[in-house]
Amino acid sequence: MSETTIGGIAGRMPKFVRRADPAVLTAFACIVLLLFVGSLYSRSFLSPEYLLQQLKVASFLGVIATGMMLVILLGQIDLSVPWSVAAGAMMACAAAAYGPVGVALAIPFGIFCGVAIGVVNGIGVAYLRIPSMIITLATNAVAQGLMVVYTGGFSPQDSATRAMRYLATGFAIPGVPNAVVIWALIGAAMVFVLTRTGFGRTVYGIGNRERAAYLSGIDTRRVVLIAFAVSGGLSAFGGVLLAGYASKAAQSMGDAYLLPSIAAVVLGGTSILGGRGSYLGTVAGVILITLLQSILSVMQMPEAGRQIIYGVVIVAMLLLYGRAPASR
Amino acid sequence: MKDWRYWLAEQRGTLLAFGIFIVMFTIYTSNHPAGFTANVVQTASNKGVLLAFVAMAQTLVVITAGIDLSVGMIFLLTNCLASWLVIGTGIETAFGVVAVLGTGLLCGAINGAIVIYGRLQPIVTTIATGAVYFGIALLLRPFPGGSVNEDLADALTGRLFGVVPASLVALLAVVLVVWMPFSRSVLGRAAYAAGSSEMAAYMSGVPIRRGKFAAYALAGLLAAIGGLFLTFFTYTGEAAYASGNAYTLFSIAAVVLGGVSLFGGKGSAIGAIFGALAFRTIGDLLFVFDFDPLWQPLFQGVILLIAVSLGAFALFRVRNRLEWFL
């Protein structure tokens, strides 16, 4: 739809503008707009320290949204993010309580737990053909149940290891927080996988039409399984980083990441039906969401107002450019 | 095939849910220290009815092959609103009830308008509108509190003639007033047809848009009835995020247990009601067997996982592998 409507105008524009996705451009335009509004509100909004701080906060969401994007590109969705995040954080902290070996294995163990959740999701979606939003809700409930039994219903007492704190808050490169570096590395790996490998092309293919991909001789079920496992692992890794940032895990730490991760991916122009979208858009979406949250908190908006504005903005932006084509 | 066999095939899911519920409830009451008494039944029905209303709401949307992840939040919003409005003299209370139900209807209608006329995906839309509804609920009740007309509340949560739980009678009344007319009307058939095959329904001139819109709006209304009853049981309003999410999740579990197909076009709200009652009873079984309450979330999660996995048995009937990919 978008190609045909803007074809006339776009024909006269420079090549790099013509090739860009209008959704990604809109998202970046909104970022500029938000920065402008923010700078009217407070001078320090455009200072490098503040922007770097925002980028650091954004990187946690960025890591989680990367996994979500992979799943959404398949035309599926992963609603098990909240407790994958919490399970990753809690299990990493829990492992740290078991001596030096536990400390060394804390981060891999946290990620492993997320991958395990993702594998259950993937088996349900790919092999049992259960709708992804249902099976991921169910595994989310099971993960929550396991964590409640493990922690006894309270926030766990174990604290994050030094390595986790270093990853989330340290500076390996002077001036650039480690969390941002990690997001950049994961993002670069994702771009490579999506655009340069067979796996990535298959993901787009399945998102467009799984039947066609299957008939082309691709083991689509294996690809779906791997994508869900990666999504679970990245959610858990996001949780590990968050635990390092706050130096401990908390019961409902993941709840605040479900809607933002979906919103970031969808606002970045990735079709919720799958098969279309770029990682650049997701980056734009993540930054957009983080800035929006930041401005609302700078304005001292209470939680209630934040939730309302948040939902309204997402629906409004989707109505602008995320609509399904008119049927027939 | 004879008529009764068609009827049996149509009602299979509902009957199965009814059977599961009867078995579970028998196990529950026979192990309950007080046994099968009016008190036990009243408590069980009061708890079950809340989920039953939310599950009915979810059914209406699921029948159109959509999903409503905001039902739990509409439930919370109307609970908070009722704790402000449903109080005072008879007329004020009546006005409050109408206002609460109207709010629920409006929330559902907003969902429907965005999904159908805005052409957005139901799942993303209802997550976002759910955030908005939760925000409004939090605005109404930053802290738990409020009160409700206690005469009305006691009348609707007590027992009729000392035996029959009034909440069950209210549930029956809602089924007769809302579900029966809707499922037999043109709009209701259109909602089923849209869920079964939207293209075919459109080609046959079925008013699918109006049918789907009515389904979403009525879902909001039913969730509001649930929220009203929650206020009657607790006498307060509370905007608890976790509780809203839990009701959304349990409503999906109840719908699945009740034999409603998540792909749309199949099942009935009656089945979902028995699914909800069965799900609640399963959760309560832990208590009569003296398990630690900490295990309850895990137990309910596992039940949900098993319930949704049961749908996979349909795969064994698939002859052509391409039918995997719908």
Automatic annotation (TrEMBL), chain A:
<feature type="transmembrane region" description="Helical">
    <location>
        <begin position="308"/>
        <end position="326"/>
    </location>
</feature>
<feature type="transmembrane region" description="Helical">
    <location>
        <begin position="134"/>
        <end position="154"/>
    </location>
</feature>
<protein>
    <submittedName>
        <fullName>Ribose transport system permease protein rbsC</fullName>
    </submittedName>
</protein>
<keyword id="KW-1133">Transmembrane helix</keyword>
<dbReference type="InterPro" id="IPR001851">
    <property type="entry name" value="ABC_transp_permease"/>
</dbReference>
<feature type="transmembrane region" description="Helical">
    <location>
        <begin position="279"/>
        <end position="296"/>
    </location>
</feature>
<feature type="transmembrane region" description="Helical">
    <location>
        <begin position="223"/>
        <end position="244"/>
    </location>
</feature>
<feature type="transmembrane region" description="Helical">
    <location>
        <begin position="55"/>
        <end position="75"/>
    </location>
</feature>
<feature type="transmembrane region" description="Helical">
    <location>
        <begin position="23"/>
        <end position="43"/>
    </location>
</feature>
<feature type="transmembrane region" description="Helical">
    <location>
        <begin position="166"/>
        <end position="194"/>
    </location>
</feature>
<feature type="transmembrane region" description="Helical">
    <location>
        <begin position="105"/>
        <end position="128"/>
    </location>
</feature>
<keyword id="KW-0812">Transmembrane</keyword>
<dbReference type="Pfam" id="PF02653">
    <property type="entry name" value="BPD_transp_2"/>
</dbReference>
<keyword id="KW-0472">Membrane</keyword>
<keyword id="KW-1003">Cell membrane</keyword>
<feature type="transmembrane region" description="Helical">
    <location>
        <begin position="81"/>
        <end position="98"/>
    </location>
</feature>
<feature type="transmembrane region" description="Helical">
    <location>
        <begin position="256"/>
        <end position="273"/>
    </location>
</feature>
UniProtKB/TrEMBL annotation, chain B:
<feature type="transmembrane region" description="Helical">
    <location>
        <begin position="160"/>
        <end position="182"/>
    </location>
</feature>
<feature type="transmembrane region" description="Helical">
    <location>
        <begin position="213"/>
        <end position="234"/>
    </location>
</feature>
<keyword id="KW-0812">Transmembrane</keyword>
<keyword id="KW-1133">Transmembrane helix</keyword>
<dbReference type="InterPro" id="IPR001851">
    <property type="entry name" value="ABC_transp_permease"/>
</dbReference>
<feature type="transmembrane region" description="Helical">
    <location>
        <begin position="295"/>
        <end position="316"/>
    </location>
</feature>
<protein>
    <submittedName>
        <fullName>Sugar ABC transporter permease</fullName>
    </submittedName>
</protein>
<feature type="transmembrane region" description="Helical">
    <location>
        <begin position="97"/>
        <end position="116"/>
    </location>
</feature>
<feature type="transmembrane region" description="Helical">
    <location>
        <begin position="123"/>
        <end position="140"/>
    </location>
</feature>
<keyword id="KW-0472">Membrane</keyword>
<feature type="transmembrane region" description="Helical">
    <location>
        <begin position="49"/>
        <end position="67"/>
    </location>
</feature>
<feature type="transmembrane region" description="Helical">
    <location>
        <begin position="246"/>
        <end position="263"/>
    </location>
</feature>
<dbReference type="Pfam" id="PF02653">
    <property type="entry name" value="BPD_transp_2"/>
</dbReference>
<feature type="transmembrane region" description="Helical">
    <location>
        <begin position="74"/>
        <end position="91"/>
    </location>
</feature>
<feature type="transmembrane region" description="Helical">
    <location>
        <begin position="270"/>
        <end position="289"/>
    </location>
</feature>
<feature type="transmembrane region" description="Helical">
    <location>
        <begin position="12"/>
        <end position="29"/>
    </location>
</feature>
<keyword id="KW-1003">Cell membrane</keyword>
